[in-house]
Amino acid sequence: MRSTFIKWLFIVYLLGSGTLYSMGILVFFPFVGRSGRYWLAAQWCRAMVVVMRWLPGITYSVEGLEHLPEGPSIILCRHESTWETLAFLAVFPRRISFVFKEDLLRIPFFGWVLRGLDMVSLNRGSPRQAHLAVTQECAERLAKGDVVVIFPEGTRVPHGAPLRLTSGGIRLACATGAPVVPVVHNAGKVWPAKGWPDGVGHIRVVVGPALSPRDTSQQELSRTVHDWMKAELLRL
């Protein structure tokens, strides 16, 4: 009974605070620049990380953060839950730009904030046009010094599911010369791909070594990323 109450209290807080905070920071968006908008959004994410620790009892740790390059890079990360989309702005010290589905922009308040954060939206209607548009947008964010976060499996998957990576992130790295940083975590064990967290849990995030596309072929780079992610997932 108590765990159910805490879960629903967390859900109400997440949705309620997200809506109220979005309404509040939208007021400031016209008066602050790109960096200021990101900072405002990141404060809510940092607050959520604290609330997750006290309500459902979700903690996290990060290993290998020193591997993240100083300049722009491309993070290829498994998408297991809602947790990483909420926490990554707090977890990573660099400005990140998610590649996300365009449908999210239609959500009142949240979508409007997301549009103002100048990230990369993906229209899944036409695969070829979508790929070209996303490649161009990602290249623009990399040129601004962002860390672009791509979920190469395209959707949320349960922890323990077979690893199936699409080639978009690797092709982007080869086209732009930006290093690839593979990242894995076990958030799906704590916060399922479909659903809400049910109780206490610890999430481990492992950041892999930066891999330059200039030193290898596209096929070799893809294989290296796949093998590293698969091996590390088995350890989580």
TrEMBL record:
GO BP: phosphatidic acid biosynthetic process
Keyword annotations: Acyltransferase, Membrane, Transferase, Transmembrane, Transmembrane helix
Transmembrane segments: 12-32
Domain Phospholipid/glycerol acyltransferase: 73-188
Pathway: Lipid metabolism
The keyword Transferase is annotated on this UniProt entry: yes
GO function term, MF aspect, one: 1-acylglycerol-3-phosphate O-acyltransferase activity
Top-level taxon: Bacteria
Pfam families, per the entry: Acyltransferase
Protein name: 1-acyl-sn-glycerol-3-phosphate acyltransferase
Species the sequence originates in: Trinickia violacea
Lineage summary: Bacteria, Pseudomonadati, Pseudomonadota, Betaproteobacteria, Burkholderiales
